[in-house]
Amino acid sequence: MYDLKGRKIDYLRLSVTDLCNFRCIYCMGENGVCKRSHREILSIEELAEIGRAAVACGVGKIRLTGGEPLVRRGILDLCRMLRRLDGLTELTLTTNGAALPEMAVSLKEAGVDRLNISLDTLREDTFRAITRRGELRQTLDGLAAAEAAGFTGTKINTVLLGGINDGEIGALAGLTREKPVSVRFIELMPLGVCADWPQERFISADTVLQAMPQLEPIGTDGVAELYRVPGWVGTVGLIRPLSHCFCDRCNRIRVTADGRLKPCLHSDREIPLRGLSGEALERAIREAAAVKPDRHHLAEHHSDSRRNMNEIGG
């Protein structure tokens, strides 16, 4: 499946809920979100059908997102249904890790290949300030549970927040010293609740290279530039949507939990998929992917998306 610019679209980020057990300051408002009725959110069967249609269109990788996908009832059933799809080469999931001590083994058994775990700080007080209600130990225990369950290639996602966690770059990168994980520093984007934040919150990922001059480039992994400290086991990744636009090689589309396909994270264009099935659904996915925008407008420091991050899945 290709868009009109010739980009191959083979990656679907499928949001299963906009709810979360955390309230991260850059993702949603302090009071969370209004809980929707079941009728407003895609059922597990509808999510599986969208996954099937996307794979039929050429998608090889599906990432389950939220909100927090592990608070979604039936998430393990969905994983099993997607894992059975012929043509799906990778099923991944992004989580804050809090539920992994109880669910890591079941997720592995359900066919999830790899996990991304969000972790923005190693300081308990900063963790509470960012998540508003989470406990650092929950996520650290989740990391340990993922390793014990046999997950490999785990990626730790860290959003760079100027004046909040930029003093911890060395400590967070240090998680790769003895563990085969990738800590990926992601530039904060002016989207949703943080669109009007002060400029000093939005720092370049060059800050990581300045803080750790011993990092050596070793290639790329998707949109991440990869580095490693010589002798360390894991890798450090930089994802730079603001300072280094990678729209020309973007290969992904997104579907929100209420059933709308977003060809671009930062576009206000949304194509309704709910109520479609079979060939009609496949046709809608292909047509939506074809009109993927050339680029976002983050260089002008704004996103055209009308949703908070928890409604899109990142």
Low-confidence segments, given as residue ranges, are none
Task: Estimate the mean pLDDT confidence.
Answer: 92
For CATH, the homologous superfamily is named as: Aldolase class I
Helix amount: 10-25%
- CATH class wording: Alpha Beta
Strand content: 15-25%
Distance between the termini: 22 Å
The SS-based structural class is: alpha/beta
**Overall tally of domains:** 1
CATH architecture name? Alpha-Beta Barrel
Quick gist of this model?
This protein has 314 residues and is α/β, with parallel strands linked by helices. It has one domain (11-311): Aldolase class I (TIM Barrel, Alpha-Beta Barrel), CATH 3.20.20.
What would you note in describing this structure?
- The protein is an alpha/beta fold and 314 residues long.
- It has a single domain, classed as TIM Barrel, CATH 3.20.20.
- Helices cover 25% and strands 18% of the residues.
- It has a twelve-stranded mixed β-sheet with strand order 7-8-9-6-5-4-3-2-1-10-11-12, with helices on one face.
- The two termini are 22 Å apart.
Q: What structural keywords apply?
A:
TIM Barrel, twelve-stranded mixed beta sheet, 8 helices, 314 residues, globular, alpha/beta, 12 strands
Write the layout of secondary structure elements.
Layout: E1 11-15, H1 44-56, E2 61-65, H2 75-83, E3 90-95, H3 100-109, E4 114-118, H4 124-131, H5 136-148, E5 155-160, H6 169-173, E6 182-187, H7 206-211, E7 216-221, E8 224-228, E9 235-239, E10 252-255, E11 260-262, E12 271-272, H8 278-290
Parallel strand pairs: 1-2, 1-10, 2-3, 3-4, 4-5, 5-6, 6-9
Antiparallel strand pairs: 7-8, 8-9, 10-11, 11-12
Helix pairs in contact: 1-2, 1-8, 3-5
